[in-house]
Amino acid sequence: MEKSKDYGEILKNKKMRNTKHRKSVIEIIELNGQPITAEEIFLKLKGHNVTISLSTVYRVLEALTSNGLISKSSVTDDNKNLFEINSLEHKHHLFCVKCRKLFSVNGCPLEDYEKDLENKFGFEIEGHKLEMYGRCECCKRNDKNI
Amino acid sequence: MEKSKDYGEILKNKKMRNTKHRKSVIEIIELNGQPITAEEIFLKLKGHNVTISLSTVYRVLEALTSNGLISKSSVTDDNKNLFEINSLEHKHHLFCVKCRKLFSVNGCPLEDYEKDLENKFGFEIEGHKLEMYGRCECCKRNDKNI
DNA sequence: ATTCATGCAAACGGTTTGCACGCAT
DNA sequence: ATGCGTGCAAACCGTTTGCATGAAT
Description:
The structure is a homodimer of 146-residue chains. Chain A has helices spanning 7-13, 20-32, 38-47, 54-66, 111-121, 137-145; strands at residues 70-73, 82-85, 91-96, 102-106, 124-135. Chain A is α+β, with helices and mostly antiparallel strands. Chain A has two domains: 1-88, Arc Repressor Mutant, subunit A (Orthogonal Bundle), CATH 1.10.10; 89-146, Ferric-uptake regulator, C-terminal dimerisarion domain (Dna Ligase, domain 1, 2-Layer Sandwich), CATH 3.30.1490. In chain A, strand 3 (91-96) and strand 4 (102-106) form a beta hairpin. In chain A, helix 2 crosses helix 4 (54-66) and helix 3 (38-47) crosses helix 4. Chain A binds a DNA duplex (25 and 25 nucleotides) through residues 17-19, 21-22, 37-39, 51-56, 58-60, 62-63, 78-81.
């Protein structure tokens, strides 16, 4: 079995204090694989018998975000923030309007398009946000059974 | 001077009750031209000597949103929702981070990309939001003179 | 006359913060 | 020894809701 990542090393590289809670939070986010809320992190940690307070979860998330280890997005319409590991790759999201899960998509189709617009408008594009929404495979299937 | 739009007619077409407050809110959003928060709407109305309570602003926004007259997004990271007029044309925007002007772009580069994603993830995409930001031609020029 | 919109204040829920204590350096 | 991380409870703030009143149909 593959040895799990050395989260302590990751923190050290960012000159952050290395604590059990910080390592646990990074690990949960990484294990989860898709964007996750603060409360879900809190509950999953509880499930793994890690005692942590919700406010610590928030403080850890803030620390990890401002050190660039994770990123925060607010795509959902219920005012809950979502956190995910900050991969170097540029990515976008697919939001399922039914189960409200957020799926990450690596890569970006917009490079050529942005170049065209820059030429056309004399605009210098620094970045963009792209959200797509719809129904995930799972929810499509369930709809048919109703 | 051009006559302002008949917001009463717009509400009537949606079979919505035609009230002064609803018309005012639509008008403010339309005048504003770029996405605006509930509180900003409230303050702008106050500035126009329209007395309305903040909760009514929220209720009007909910009514307008669910009738498809405006749309709601939560792109900012401060947990405030933004509202804008729902235009029929599919278009995107270039937002200048310096002068805060908004440039409309007709058309959309995402159709093929979305088909790919649908095949890849089994996701059924219903729509998307794309914002690009940067500097417009004018502001680029001014930067060089500093 | 009926139904729905509004104002007010209070509730709600996700997030932040003050304070005292504990742990990493 | 010091400064930063943590737990707890309370505060915060954008948003929602219950209730009584008022306006639109």
